[in-house]
Amino acid sequence: MNGERFTPVNTFEYEALAKLKLPKMVYDYYASGADDEYTLEDNIAAFRRLRLRPRVLVDISAQDISTTLLGIPSSFPLVIAPAAMQKMAHPDGEVAVARAAAKNKVIMTLSSLSTCSMEQVAESSPAGAKWFQLYIYKDRQVTKKLVERAQNAGYKALVLTVDAQRLGRREADIHNKFSLPQHLTFGNFQEEQTTNDDKTRTKSAQGSGIEAYFASLMDPSLTWKDIAWLQSITRLPIILKGITTAEDAQKAVQSGVAAVIVSNHGARQLDGMLATIDCVEEVVDAVRSRIPVLMDSGVRRGTDILKALALGAKAVCIGRPVLWALAVGGEEGVDDVLNLLRNEFHLAMGLVGCRSVEEIDRRIVVHQDVARIQKLKPKTHPQPLSQNARL
Ligand SMILES: Cc1cc2nc3c(=O)[nH]c(=O)nc-3n(C[C@H](O)[C@H](O)[C@H](O)COP(=O)(O)O)c2cc1C
Ligand SMILES: CC(C)CC(=O)C(=O)O
User: Is residue 174 part of a domain?
Assistant: First the structure.
């Protein structure tokens, strides 16, 4: 294979190419999971343990893969998950992702810890619907200000992350003494950064700078009572990100939130948790259609989206595939990955005999016998030989 002509055709190949392009510290931060990364591996493997049961001889000449999420139309059931510090992947950072999302008519979720400001991102792509991911700061005035700004800038919902009272232990970040590169800043905290440079840039003499930064600012005392507080200061719908059990799903419904995202944070928090696709049915059953259930962690293929919907999810979110695409090709790369996933989903939905997302149901997916599956080696993808590959 000629490395100069390598064009990625799936999200795994985007990762391989991004790994060649990115500085090691940045690639490791994006790619890492917590501890031994068992759950990281399982987020992907669990999708492979699920197999599809297609129905044939269905007229699929006019498929509709679109959906609606909290009243927002979406070209297919996919949302961009919040991921911090995107200018480390590409100088345009979150703005490039927002533009590609708007072009593809999918919702983008912006991280609290973005490297562009939320106003800049909103202005860059006014036609695209956006959600704002919220971390709750010990200083509630900081949190309140973020919420007000998100509301004023036109964000349509708050995605409150509830699985990160403390940051997980990512060993590569400890080895690399990960910190936000000197030329970048947190876009939503420009004022604070001129007065307290080192702390806000996450510098650390030892260990992971981001872990130290997070521990110094975020509130580990968060409980269900704080959901009521958040509801009292905003008119935006609140989505809880990081629900994985029936017990918490029931509490989420009782607390009056608009939706939940079944997520293990891309396996970056608690190693040893189930893969999130294995938690979806439990949460869906507990919620009993009262609010939409979304899921993320390990979605890499159109067939993964199909499987998640078959188990009752309304949509999936993707984290790392967007970062790899951004690193490889900026806005164009993200546009390409969204197109790839849309096309894969369209094809997969047709091949199982579903004409619309409403027709996707539990019968199209079956849990495969684990022992048998482990003997089947997944295809290895061709690796790009140089970073000068073309899109
Ligand atoms: C580099 C990176 C940064 C992330 N930053 C945030 C964040 O700021 N807020 C948040 O709620 N989740 C964050 N996440 C978790 C994602 O929103 C999402 O849950 C996860 O990436 C989904 O798994 P996937 O990467 O396998 O698709 C981050 C994930 C990654 C990989
Ligand atoms: C800056 C980090 C706290 C963002 C995050 O949630 C993550 O790295 O998983």
Answer: yes
**Has 175 been annotated as catalytic?**
no
Domain CATH code at residue 113: 3.20.20.70
pTM of the model: 0.95
Q: Indicate which ligand has the atom closest to the C-alpha of 215.
A: 2
**Domain annotation covers residue 85:** yes
Contact residues of ligand 1, CB 6 A cut-off: 29-30, 43, 81-84, 111, 113, 133, 161, 241, 263, 265-266, 268, 296-299, 318-320
pLDDT in tens, 293-315: 999 999 999 999 999 999 999 99
- Ligand minimally distant from the alpha carbon of residue 110: 1
3 state SS for the chain: CCHHHCCCCCHHHHHHHHHHHCCHHHHHHHHCCCCCCHHHHHHHHHHHHEEECCCCCCCCCCCECCEEECCEEECCCEEECCCCCHHHCCCCHHHHHHHHHHHCCCEEEECCCCCCCHHHHHHHCCCCCEEEEECCECCHHHHHHHHHHHHHCCCCEEEEECCCCCCCCCHHHHHHCCCCCCCCCCHHHHHHHHHCHHHHCCCCCCCCHHHHHHHHHECCCCCCHHHHHHHHHCCCCEEEECCCCHHHHHHHHHCCCCEEEECCHHHCCCCCCCCHHHCHHHHHHHHCCCCCEEEECCCCCHHHHHHHHHCCCCEEEECHHHHHHHHHHHHHHHHHHHHHHHHHHHHHHHHCCCCEHHHCCHHHEEECCHHHHHHCCCCCCCCCCCCCCCC
Of 90, 175, 183, 265, catalytic: 265
ipTM of this model? 0.99
Atom number of ligand 2 nearest to Cα 111: 4
